[in-house]
Design goal:
- The protein has 519 residues and is mostly helical.
- 60% of the residues lie in helices and 5% in strands.
- It contains 21 helices and seven strands.
- The strands form three sheets. A three-stranded mixed β-sheet has the order 4-6-5.
- The protein is globular and about 70 Å long.
């Protein structure tokens, strides 16, 4: 009631935006909006959704819980948020704006609210499947289940766009990826597994809803050897992440959670408690540093400085694409050598087409024999967010990763405006409009850009291997970056100036790394 009164009496865009920011774009809704769920293991393949029920609804697990009550509580709370969104949009639509900049801000905020509304409605429909996962039960009858699944798929298409099998380019890339791997690896398979994979390939190719095109293989670059073949303990890699956040003056720090993977929550970088994350190879730590901090958190920081905390409707594709692009160029890829097939993408195509039984076999072979993805369990859990384990349907959020990586490359090839990608969480088509806001921003010195810390660490220790008396030279490092990233415009990043200003904190990180890397 207080929110609605404040909304009613608000007269400026700043007032309304601030209210919406506090009421809708807050921490407890973020993981639902992002469709990034944490689960609590109850017993084997019985998983209680901590994000929906414990974090958001504040209902701890109980085996004697009334499922109808749980469903009603969750649905009621989510729909209250949806009603709040509807009223907020009405207020924004009738609000007088004073300039073109305010008009742009208002349209971005309305689009963001419509996107969040769609995701919350998706969650309200899919909550029955999240309940089923915890109690291993079929809770609704088949006719209702099928209608519900079609509704969820329709809502997903609004958020994440069409199926993979409906897009000729995506279908062809995924199919060729699976076929190429099969041809390379089939000598390692048993005869029965070769027969199964041949059957799966035939089913997938014959099931397409689009034209099939041959995709030429992407040339592989000569990648450098990973820096030190050493595992980093969880407490140490947490300290690395925290130190890099400190270097950039970012507010986030690491926290332990029951998340299934390392997750860039708005307020903190979540590190899973489970044994799989007790230590990580250094090369993976450096890739995560580039992906999570030097992409996601820098963009988030700049977005808040220039605009507000809310996330724009189509931020997810550009955000994930940019982070994956940064990760790959750190490894040594360039425009022409990045393979745009990502880990979970080809599995979505298989899941769209194969039966549940066939998909289980397909995944067993891909994980065990081809070493694709970390594990079968992780892949299934990720793909089944908002879906039941008892139905051959799959969540489609991961398709945007593939689509965006291609778009980032095309955008940079065409416009070469790398800087614009780090200023806010928006869609490509709005970069020019948003750049207008940046140009008007009075405190440009507060805006941060990547210093390529993962490269800096690699550069430092590789020189230290050659000469144990080596001292870091900022000018030489800047020349190294310009040579490595010849295809990017880095002059506006002011790397030399930033490194000089923050050298004490950077040196502190390097000295810490020396202790754990050089025994």
């Amino acid at each position: 009631m207080i929110y609605y009164l404040k909304l009613y009496f608000s007269r400026s865009l700043d007032e309304v935006t601030s209210l919406i920011d506090d009421e809708i774009f807050h921490g407890s809704l973020e993981k639902i909006i992002e469709v990034t769920y944490s689960y609590k293991d109850i017993w084997e393949w019985n998983l209680y959704n901590e994000t929906l029920f414990e974090d958001y609804l504040k209902v701890p697990y109980s085996k004697n819980m009334n499922l109808s009550v749980l469903w009603k509580k969750y649905s009621h709370k989510i729909y209250k948020q949806i009603w709040t969104i509807d009223d907020s949009i009405k207020k924004l639509e009738h609000l007088n704006v004073l300039s073109r900049v305010e008009s742009l801000r208002r349209s971005i905020l309305i689009d963001a609210l419509l996107y969040v509304r769609n995701i919350l409605e998706l969650s309200s429909k899919a909550v029955v499947f999240e309940i089923e996962k915890a109690w291993d039960t079929i809770w609704i009858i088949d006719s209702q289940r099928n209608r519900l699944l079609h509704t969820i798929e329709s809502l997903e298409k609004k958020a994440f766009w069409p199926l993979v099998m409906e897009n000729s380019g995506e279908f062809s890339r995924c199919y060729n990826f699976i076929e190429r791997n099969h041809n390379l690896q089939k000598s390692k398979l048993s005869r029965s597994d070769v027969i199964k994979m041949n059957k799966f390939l035939k089913i997938i190719k014959n099931s397409r809803k689009c034209d099939f095109t041959e995709i030429h293989e992407v040339p592989s670059p000569e990648l450098e050897e990973p820096l030190f073949n050493i595992d980093i303990q969880r407490k140490d890699y947490r300290k690395i992440f925290d130190s890099v956040c400190e270097i950039y003056n970012l507010p986030q720090r690491t926290v332990l959670s029951n998340a299934g993977s390392i997750y860039d929550w708005d307020e903190s970088l979540e590190i899973p408690r489970n044994e799989n994350f007790s230590c990580l190879p250094l090369d993976r730590v450096l890739k995560l540093l580039t992906h999570e901090i030097e992409s996601h958190y820098i963009n988030q920081y700049n977005w808040k400085k220039i605009l507000w905390n809310f996330r724009w409707a189509k931020n997810l594709p550009k955000e994930e694409w940019l982070a994956m692009f940064m990760e790959r160029i750190y490894l040594g890829y360039t425009y022409d050598t990045i393979d745009t097939i990502v880990e979970y993408f080809f599995t979505i195509l298989a899941w769209e087409i194969l039966s549940w039984e066939d998909f289980q076999e397909f995944m067993r072979i891909m994980v065990t024999e081809y070493k694709c993805m970390r594990s079968y369990d992780v892949a299934v859990l990720r793909a089944k967010r908002n879906y039941s384990f008892h139905a051959p349907w799959v969540q489609h959020k991961d398709v945007v990763y593939f689509r965006g990586l291609t778009e980032v490359i095309d955008y940079l090839k065409t416009w070469w405006e790398f800087k614009k990608l780090f200023l806010w969480k928006v869609w490509f088509l709005d970069l020019d409009n948003m750049y207008d806001l940046y140009q008007r921003y009075e405190k440009k010195e507060e805006i941060v850009f990547p210093l390529f810390i993962s490269d800096l660490i690699s550069y430092y220790f590789k020189n230290l291997e050659k000469n144990n008396q080596y001292e870091f030279n900022i000018q030489e490092y800047n020349l190294f970056l310009k040579k490595k990233y010849w295809f990017l415009d880095l002059d506006s990043f002011k790397i030399i100036q930033r490194l000089t200003e923050d050298w004490n904190r950077i040196d502190k990180l390097l000295q810490f790394l020396k202790k754990i890397l050089i025994k």
